Amino acid sequence: MKKPKPGLPTREQILSFIEQSDQPAGKREIARAFGLSAQEKIGLKALLKDMADEGLIDSAPGRAFHKMGGLPKVTVLRIVDVDDGGNVWAEPERWEAEGAPIPRVRVRERKRGSLGIGQRVLARTEEAGGGWIAHVMKTIAPAAEQILGVLREEAGRFWLTSVDKKERREWMVSDAGDAQPGDLVLAEKAGRPPRLTARVTERLGDPFAPRSFSLIAIHKFEIPDRFQPETLEEAERIARQPLGDDREDLRHLPIVAIDPVDARDHDDAVWAAPDDDPANPEGWRAIVAIADVSFYVRPGSAIDKDARRRGNSVYFPDRVVPMLPEILSADVCSLKEGEDRAALACHLQVTKDGKLKGFRFTRAVVRLAANIAYEDAQAAIDGELPHPLTETALRPLWNCWAALAKARDAREPLDLDLPERRVVLDERGRILSVAPRARLDAHRLIEDYMIAANVAAAKALEAKKAPVMYRVHEAPNRTKLVALKDYLETFDIPFAMGQVIRPATFNRIIDTIGDADFRPQVMEQILRSQTQAYYAPVNQGHFGLSLGSYAHFTSPIRRYADLVVHRALVGAYKLGDGGLLPEGDEMERLGTSISQFERRAMEAERETIDRYVAAYLSEHVGQVVETRITGVTNFGFFATVDGVGGDGLMPIRDLGGDYFHYDEASQQLLGEKSREIYRLGQRLPLRLAEANPVSGALRFELPDGKGAKPEPRRVLKRRGRPANIRHNGKRR
């Protein structure tokens, strides 16, 4: 490799050297390669720091550098897959490239078949053909793996029970430290098979205490819940900065925020009035004012780096793990009644049919007339609760919404009105109730205003040919549609595979069902047939909303994707400081990472709700409860308690002395002799046998207990194939 000329190198020269170097490139190697003097080495150190802050490079263990989003020349990899062709795939054990997806590396084995999933290797990596290849230098001992669980004592020995409901084994504890039986602890695996044990590394406290269930999720999913000191210092400093004089003054308008009664932060507020433009007869003017987070959180700042590592806020019944420090998320950025706040205002011109005739964006200062709970806003409109802003603010909002609703009905988005559970706690964190959230017109109103603003944001950026972080929801794939077709056939509901699939296709199915008992399970099955939404810079449309262009703009306090859109709007329309127009490759990496963080948050929130539900139901163990079957498998079925939620298993081994055939298409278990049927959506009484708040697991039994021993088995045939006969959870 040709040696560069002496003198402090440029960023491009350093990146080129790192990429081409056949050995780990640290500061010493870079300085030697460019022949730098002692004084120039000081400048090199500062330059490398700047490049790291700019996201151009990252450091590997041993102080070597590599291109951001790339791999060190020598690194530790963990084997994650061996495909059908025998190819071995691995991922880096440590990955700290902010915003870049974890690379998948093909491993070249010295001896074919010598590596298995979970093994760790020290390897030399190289980029080839747009991908990565690793050459194994040596296999290394397994790293300590953490277990989150509850300590118990039996016969003078300590045992650890994992909080993960999928983990069936208990671990003998070799070192409990200062932890006591009943404590929630973090432990690491120790020893070697078959004598694996666990060593406690951290005592977390009482797992059954109020507010512990969310802590379990935070540790399990490794959700960052503490800000760096420099982030907090920076937040305190920028929170004091003035709003500036170059903002549109909207403080004279009765703008209101309508949110859940227990909202921790307030991103958005709305206003509407009849449009006096003769070119828009019977139309409306509306403003969706969104917290101007981009004014406070600048690209590359300490707050920004922490926010990117989190991706979004995570909401639990007892706490929120915010994306931004509390002084910003709950105070300075949050839109509050009677307080001057910085906002990015989306001005909408809406026709009488609800179409967007025009839109523009401004940086503004707002002073909210009120923060109103959904229930109170609805009661005011219904005439059940007097409110001083009913006629001046709420009534115009509802009238404009009537127009927006016409446009929504015309495009026929997917309409799955499935209930959401709400856990209500008292002041000490104890559970008062678990019940479905009420679904009001006030909720739909805010949703439609937010959707309109999100569409406007996407189209505004497209008009400037600026990068857009789209919210993408692709149409269902054929495999899922075939499964849905087979399922619907069991209810004699036709579903033609040759038709063009639109959201309205599924809505017609739901309308056909009417108020039938199986309506909820069909809606759930339709939901399962949908793809998962994600963030990306390439527009694939939003299938569920039946929209061609859609971006998230309305929640920058709690979603990094929205902050990206705000910066793009500020930059494209020259609205002041804090704008940024990132390049395509960076947008793609960022979209991948924030989509992953979103899925992490969803899983953590769902598991925590399950734990609260299990804790609530633990007082009803032994009682017979009304349930509905929510899932059927070849080892039993899952059921949820009516009005409360929480999925619990009814094992097939406890269904009595009959043999049961599992029909995947119809999602049912059929008794061979009794012809007893357990199918998805069926309602039936079951006895609650177990409710474990730590894992969130429930287990049910038949009300009359276990059945008799089975008679000798015979094989059934159905649809020309051997039936899948199972008994006692074992395949026959």
Report on the structure:
With 732 residues, the chain is an alpha+beta fold. The protein is built from 16 helices and 38 strands. The chain has a five-stranded mixed beta barrel with strand order 4-5-6-8-7. It starts with 10 loop residues before the first helix and ends with a strand. Residues 1-5 and 706-732 have low confidence and may be disordered.
What is the molecular shape? globular
| Helix proportion | 25-40%
Q: Mean pLDDT, rounded to whole units? A: 84
Based on CA atoms alone, the radius of gyration comes out at: 29 Å
Structural class: alpha+beta
Strand order of the largest sheet: 4-5-6-8-7
Distance from N terminus to C terminus (CA atoms, Å) equals: 64 Å
pLDDT < 50 stretches: 1-5, 706-732
Which features characterize this protein?
732 residues; alpha+beta; five-stranded mixed β-barrel; 16 helices; 38 strands; 29% strand; globular; disordered N terminus; disordered C terminus
Short description:
By secondary structure, the protein is of the alpha+beta class. 28% of the residues lie in helices and 29% in strands.
